[in-house]
Amino acid sequence: MRAVRGTAPRPPRVRGSHAQEQAVGKAVLGGDKMIPQQPDERPGRNRVIPGGTRLRRLVVRLGMAPPSTGMAVVAAVGAAATLVGAGALPRSRLDPATWDSLSLPWVGAAFLLAATGFVAGRLYRTAPRMSLQRPAASGRPVSAAPWRPAGSTDARRSLTGELERLVRGLRLQQARALLLVVDIDRMRDVNAVYGYRVGDALLAVFERRLEQFRAQIALARRLGGDRFLVLATIGDGTPRLAERILARLRAPLHLGGLELNLRISAGLARFPDHAQEAEKLLRSAELALDQAKLAGGNRLVVYDVRMDAAFRHRKLVEMQIKRGLERREFVLHYQPQFDLASGCVTGVEALLRWPGRPGGALPPGQFVPVAEACGLIRPLGAWLIDEACATARRWLDEGIRVTMCVNISVAQLRHQDVAGLAQRCLERHR
Predict the structure, then answer these.
(1) What is the spatial distance between Cα 24 and Cα 175, in angstroms, rounded to a whole number?
(2) Inter-residue contact 266 to 181 (CB < 8 Å)
(3) SS (HEC) of the chain
(4) What is the pLDDT of residue 214?
(5) 153-304, what's its fold?
(6) Is residue 128 within 8 Å of 80, Cβ to Cβ?
(7) CA 10, 12, 18, 24 torsion-angle sign
């Protein structure tokens, strides 16, 4: 724990006694487990916070001094972490490591700053409420600014505006650049298996790893969820910068005794080759990312102009699948399975087909990946299982006894209770 030296002659008086401050520090540092705001990537160096009742009841108000003294109020209530007040935090008041962590986008870390001039502890919680901008080189105080949820319309508009300003500079300098949009594959599975606190810690480390390339990149921002944007100028020393960034991001991650091997998908677009406007450049990189996801993930895909037509086609097919389910355009074809010794049919495999599609039939290899990507695989797969069970019932009534096999999408298995769904269908058609 490092002391924070102040320039004021004496710290201000605050609500709560020094003994209470010590009790708070002990509760945070020695009580319930917590993940640090800067997770250590070495095995066994981090502990996972369980969110017990002690921390849920914890309310910390460690003092508010006039802005000139550089103190701040930090409150932590339940699952929320909030920076209260608009007091400035001069760089001279905090050590460089603390400033570095404060200047990054917060992932629910509340710094508990005691008015007596020391850092009482850090509380790692859920989504942040406010963030701090990095101070200027002069060291002038920078006031706290409202934090906008990543992925919101105004946040994306602000990001696009910042990207556009950088692109204008590239245009004036006749420079070249790459825009990389990165996404963590199966992040939902991480949250489901290990909990959102581990997921938040993963994102914090992810941001820290991107910070390691700050000397080589012009912009690094979180787009929302588990998606990040990186803009870097292309020079003699950066021919393989995207590959080096992805290699660093994919390195095994150790949190709370867990080893996580990250699968990273990325789309890359180049300025000015692929686009000369910020919005088009971002859209091109995102189209390349979508293509990486459709190809199985964990890969880098460079934008190609043909992806625009492919995107429009996917959106058309997506709309047609939804309409086709409503109009019952899908059918099952049954491929027989033979016993070679006896020559008898012992079973059938139900194969999904779409002969009623407007514009002509489309093979499963083309419409199933679209259904998986947009989430329509769940109602489509549910219909397939129910229809196969209904057909098996009709055949049994006609005296035909064969084994019925169906193909299930991995995406459906991951996001739907397929066993329970099949059981309900069997009971319905008993």
Answers:
(1) 53
(2) yes
(3) CCECCCCCCCCCCCCCCHHHHHHHHHHHHHHCCCCCCCCCCCCCCCCCCCCCHHHHCCCCCCCCCCHHHCCCEEEEECCEEEEECCCCCCHHHCCHHHHHHHHCCCCCEEEEECCCCEEEEEEECCCECEECCCCCCCCCCCCCEECCCCCCHHHHHHHHHHHHHHHHHHHHHCCCEEEEEEEECCHHHHHHHHCHHHHHHHHHHHHHHHHCCCCCCCEEEEEECCEEEEEEECCCCCCCHHHHHHHHHCCCEEECCEEECCCEEEEEEEECCCCCCHHHHHHHHHHHHHHHHHCCCCCEEECCCHHHHHHHHHHHHHHHHHHHHHHCCCEEEEEEEECCCCCCEEEEEEEEECCCCCCCCCCHHHHHHHHHHHCCHHHHHHHHHHHHHHHHHHHHHCCCCCEEEECCCHHHHHHCCHHHHHHHHHHHCC
(4) 80
(5) Alpha-Beta Plaits (3.30.70)
(6) no
(7) negative
Instruction: Give 311-428's CATH code, choosing from 3.30.450.40, 3.40.50.300, 3.40.390.10, 3.20.20.450.
Output: 3.20.20.450
Annotated domain spans of the chain:
18-146, 153-304, 311-428
Bridging pattern class, strands 331-338 and 300-302: unpaired
Please state, in angstroms and rounded to a whole number, the distance separating the CA atoms of residues 330 and 137: 63
Residue 356 C-beta-side C-alpha neighbours within 13 Å: 13
Backbone phi, psi, residue 420, to 5°: -65, -40
> What's the predicted TM-score (pTM) here?
0.55
Write down the pLDDT at residue 152. 54
Residue found by looking up tokens 């196969």 in the block: 388
- In the predicted structure, residue 266 carries a pLDDT above the cut 70: yes
Cα–Cα distance for residue pair 112/22, rounded to 1 Å: 11
Residues 142-179: pLDDT tens digits? 322 322 334 456 667 778 888 888 888 888 888 889 99
225 within 8 A of 151, measured Cβ to Cβ: yes
**Model confidence band, residue 225 (pLDDT cutoffs 50, 70, 90):** confident
Per DSSP, what are the bridge partners of residue 314?
none
Residue 308: phi and psi, rounded to 5, are: -65, -45
pLDDT in tens, 77-128: 222 223 322 233 333 333 444 333 333 332 333 333 333 333 333 333 322 2
